[in-house]
């Protein structure tokens, strides 16, 4: 009923207007112009709500009408907005530049600016905006568009000066702070950039969200090393882009999220991101290689084999693929396939280290230390003097209990890399194993000088000194500093309590060890320490009960020693 009436009304309007056009023709407007105009009007009013856009084209008729008679100035806004929406941008620019002075309002003129910017003709857009802003310097939107063009043209100082003046007019406008933030990004002042983007976020209307602001905040926090905040903002950005149907792939955000997930061992999240957005990673083989690596590190070895075998079937096998496949087979107990894949990894590219490392890992698991060492000799031929050679050779020798040879390799590495923290820490641990306390302390003190806020280095030095019963004042200072840096670490609190125990401060020691257990009750060694404190405090029955619990849990450093404690007489 309503549709029928609408059709009748449109045809009535068409008839009246065409009849009127006969008198208008005396003013020089042609039949062709009027016919095209009213055909466009008919399309726009009637078909817009009935047919998909590809089946009707009011803008096309408006263009024909205007081209037949350019005195139809009132058609320009419709032509421009229609073309802009359909992304026929070049024609917008042509119409806009040719008839700019005849455009009836500022919005029509701004459509021309948007078209020029979308076409990358920033200089033209900049000239138009300068003219519009000069006509009305109170127009904040035009002013901010002008700032945008200054930035795009590399005129950052000019843009910054203008946006600061606009801020005085519109201090609570999100885009003002966003553009200020962009200037500070250009200056690489990440702190001020974050400050302004946070203000932009606060200036958004209630229940409004801007995924691009979240995205940039995520990138900025990543640059500052604040990965947790970076992930939070990038996840918000990705969610909002998805809700709006904007850039459904939004590859930049997803790649940044994937990078941060992997960096922070959020393997489950990384796997979910990849599987749910596989279309955003167009190279299926690359995505499968990464999924294989994630599954390997999650302990899902069968899934690793499945992904990586598919990659090989696609003809995309490489050193990384074969090496990770070797590791998966090794963990599945298939040593023959593991060895074969590791050798394929080496043969596919002898200059890449990953294949050698996979084969070494396999031989070390089988306690074939001589074979493992010979593999690293082969690797050294292609990678002379590389840190990974020193570290891996030292690991082989340490596993073989050849501690003197191990420390010799590490010292050779330290001659080449005197400030390398991995080599220094490893050397310190081996010297403690050799009971060469002075050299061990020297290595750890060098480490702490290089990284004074590394809580692990402080904790480990303090714990080792306590275990040996030497330099307990230094041990106390180290462990106190470690728990100041990381207050809720069960391991670090346990070390602090153990130092207090060695100093004879039993009540304080018991309190700290109990704190550690409250934080993490799954570490057998902490329960063993609590038993030692109970025994020293005369609570022998409680001590044996706790030692028994530690033994049942498994994972203590010296099980034989713990059994001896349990067999003590009361």
Compact summary:
With 570 residues, the protein is mainly α. The chain has helices at 2-25, 31-46, 58-68, 76-85, 89-98, 106-118, 122-135, 140-152, 156-169, 174-186, 190-203, 211-223, 227-244, 251-263, 267-276, 284-298, 301-313, 319-331, 335-348, 354-365, 369-382, 387-399, 403-416, 421-433, 437-450, 455-468, 472-485, 490-502, 506-519, 524-536, 540-553, 559-566.
What does this structure look like?
The model is unreliable at 1-28 (pLDDT under 50). 76% of the residues lie in helices and 0% in strands. It has a domain at 522-570. The chain has 570 residues and is an all-alpha fold.
Largest sheet: none
Counting helices, strands and paired strands, the structural category is mainly alpha
Using only C-alpha atoms, the radius of gyration works out to: 36 Å
What is the count of β-strands? Answer: 0
Mean pLDDT across every amino acid position: 84
Q: What's the helix count?
A: 32
Give me the secondary-structure topology:
Elements: H1 2-25, H2 31-46, H3 58-68, H4 76-85, H5 89-98, H6 106-118, H7 122-135, H8 140-152, H9 156-169, H10 174-186, H11 190-203, H12 211-223, H13 227-244, H14 251-263, H15 267-276, H16 284-298, H17 301-313, H18 319-331, H19 335-348, H20 354-365, H21 369-382, H22 387-399, H23 403-416, H24 421-433, H25 437-450, H26 455-468, H27 472-485, H28 490-502, H29 506-519, H30 524-536, H31 540-553, H32 559-566
